[in-house]
Amino acid sequence: MDEVWRKLAEPFPPGEVQWRVEALSRDKKRALVVPYVDARTVLDRLDKVVGPEGWHDAYEVLSDAERLVKDERGERRERLCEVKCRLTVLGVTKEDVGEGDSLKAAFSDALKRAAVKFGVGRYLYRLEKQWVDYDPEKGRFTPPKLPEAEPEAEEEKPEAHRLIDQLLERLKEKGLGKEAARIVTKYGGYGKTPEETRKLYGELRNLLKG
Fold it and tell me: Does the keyword Hydrolase belong to this entry (predicted)?
C-alpha cells in the first residue's frame, strides 16, 4: 500500500495547479495568492492511482443557511453551506468538512479536504503564499510559476509484485477491479510476508479464472 499512498501524494504538474486571491494590499495593486487544485483534478488522481472502482465517496449536508456579514462594504447577507465528505480508498475511510457559498462549492471543498488526508495535494499547503501584481479593474493577476516536478527513479520491483500488478491490470480490464481491490486491501498491499504474497497471488488468480 505504501506505493499507492506515494502515488496519491505526488505533486501535480504545474499546469494543473491554480491560484486564488487570499488578500489584497491597501492600494489593491498587489495580491497575496495561494495554490490549489479543483475537485476534478482530485477525482482524476484517484481514478488514475486506484481506478474508479477502488474508491467511493459519500456526503452529508450539515448546514445550508444565510448569515449576516459586516465589513468595509457595509452590511449584507451571505449564504454559508457546510458538507461532510466520507472518502474511502481501498477500504480505508477518512472524512472532513468543507464549506462554500453554495452546496456545489461545499461539496467540492469537502472532497478536496478529505482527499488531503490521503496525501492528495497535501504538499500545496507547504508552499509559500506569494505576492503578485494585481489589476483591480479587471480582477486579474499573473499566476506564480511552480517548478516542474522531477520524476522519481522507479525502484525495481520484486518479481512477485510485478506478477501481481499484471494480474490486477487484467482484472481491471475484465471489470473486476473492485473485487481485486478488496483482496489487495485484505493483505495490506502485496502482503507482509512471502506466504501472504503467495496467498494474495492465488486469490487474484482464482478471481480471474472465475
Answer: no
